[in-house]
């Protein structure tokens, strides 16, 4: 059974978005922008940060109304999809067992001024999401959202077919998980550009040509095809 099939009966018929629960771990700039986009698209969303969810209540009332504040372990236990939107240097605080069997969206970038020196990421010989997948072997890690700025995520949302619609890469090893996350990306207002491996995601990272570039799907596809996995 793939991690996707282990989630709430999504193996045959795609669930209606309102019945999908997305747990967003990290309630900062990226996490709240993603949470709002999901809420506006009809998903059920919970938000957690590093401490007591009671501390998030006031912020949520103003910033992401409709999201449910939760402890991380409670949010994940009840979720169909988990979004990791915390700084990479904090990832080691998440128990791999918690994410086993889950579809996990990796929005994170390695950013030394914030993250410090983390040898596994600083080595630069593999894209960061490959390292994240290795840290969470039981999860189906899907990289998306990472190459757009939080401040562009919401203003750039467009309905399907709109001439100014932009693309978001959706990369992972588990094709069913990539398909599930692609449907989510489409629903929130972007053309998903599936990439069938995490090894080929260096072009999305800081310093890569897609990072912060606000590209169309066609432009992203060209970069995805042109970019070989990091040697
Ligand atoms: N900013 C962007 O434009 C952008 C765009 C794409 C991707 N990203 C990626 O998104 C991630 C977050 O960036 P950000 O700019 O949103 O950072 P941020 O504004 O500093 O927010 C970080 C959030 O993570 C939470 N957090 C920290 N440790 C945690 C833990 N152990 N468990 C649960 N939550 C935890 C923090 O909660 P506490 O305050 O309670 O510690 C805070 O809510 C980074 O990996 C970044 O590379 C950012």
TrEMBL record:
Entry superkingdom: Bacteria
Key words, A-Z: Oxidoreductase
Signal peptide: none
Listed SUPFAM superfamilies: NAD(P)-binding Rossmann-fold domains
InterPro entries in UniProt: NAD(P)-bd_dom_sf, P5C_Rdtase_cat_N, STEAP_metalloreductase
Chain ranges passing through the membrane: none
Every Pyrroline-5-carboxylate reductase catalytic N-terminal domain range: 22-110
Keyword Oxidoreductase among record annotations: yes
Protein name: NAD(P)-binding domain-containing protein
Organism: Arthrobacter koreensis
